[in-house]
# Entry
Amino acid sequence: MKISAGVNSKVKEKKPIFQYLAAFTGTLTIMTSGMHYGWPSPSLPILEKMVNSSLVINHDEGSWMAVMPLLGALIGALIAATIVDILGRKRAIYITCFPFFAAWIMIAFAKSLPILYIARFIAGISDGWAFTAVPMYIGEIADPNIRGLLGSGLSSAWIFGILLINIIGSYLSITTTALISSIVPIVALLTFIWMPESPYYLVMKGNHDEAKKNLQTLRGKEDVDNELDRVSLAVKAQTQNTGKFLDLFVTKSNRKAVYIIMTLRGAQQLSGTTAITFYTQLIFNEAGDDISSELATIIYFSVQFLLTIFCSSIVDKAGRRPLLITSLLGSAVALFCEGSYFFVKTRTNVDTSSFSCIPVISLIGFVIFFSSGMQSIPILMLGELFPANVKAFALCLADMYFCVMATIVSKFFQIVKDSCGIDVPFYVFTASCLLGLVFIVLFVPETKGKSLEEIQLYLGGKTGREKRGEKTDKVEV
# Structure
């Protein structure tokens, strides 16, 4: 009888396919965000070449068009941080599909620049909202042994969105591109709405029966009582220690984590990655290589997409710090080569036609090194460094900081390029990479193989022996 029962139990257990389905359909919103961010690369050159049109723009107007989603994301992140525990993770995610869709329709039929600005701003609100809700949802539904894989899908989906919009937008009109792109949020809504709500959120709301049912669906097995008990205990502990935004700065471990994230995100954006994303085709046009700017841009983002996936697969083996250090060193060399080519081309009489492939090779080199660490690890460590009771505030703060930094750097690129020459911003990005490298070597810890509790102990300045109450000769300064 026991053997028979055991066999029946095994037969009932299924593969946890719903975890993959929920993560994939949820990250379709992140993919839509990437498409909105990548839209300026193929579209700005078209708008700037228009004649006798109400949509013709100059470089300054184009730069504001590019950064408008970053400004909207500031508001979106704030909204999401305050309502994600009210609406629920699932509802908060699929609601973003509506403004994403509306933004594409507005872009498709826009007859004036203000409409385009508003559409991009609305897309930014959804972006800030999605980048707060989706990481929380995936972190709460994923089994520990596949959480890293599913969580790293955020960066991959975002980069794939940028790649997709560059492929579509390089060969189709702005209207047709926007109408095709509007299909993605529709697909996201129609697929994700059937996914289970986070069991963690349901327990927070006292709905234990629905939480158990969703756990069974996500895990593909009937016996989830032990995990449900663990979730209930965790929720109870966090309810007793409800986090506040100021806890990010008052609590020592949280404050240290904020400094680390600011360092990582600052180094990431000061490398110029977002500015390069916005102006990829313009940069390749300036380079004047025999390869078309459209093809070079597609190659650039294809490499970035593949390398981001590769980094996600090795980060738990290679470690965070080695990948970050290698990433910034290689990026600095590639950016220096890019700046030097433009310096020789624009400031000397040297004929650069014989080595016009250098800017393409340099930018491909930059994206290879950047994607091997700096693209995805800062987002990964964001989920590792903060306790659950302040994670929503931390994600909100990190997204706002990202938006501010990306806006400043993107505007800096456009202003300095137009006033001082395109070589100058690349030299500044090179110096920023080297400065970021120093900060990472000095202040960013290695979290590979550490439990979340061990990471919190480290950030709080404690050791495992102190946690167990053993004597230690260390004195905290």
The chain is about 80% helix and 0% strand. The CA atoms of residues 48 and 57 lie 5 Å apart. The longest helix spans residues 388-420.
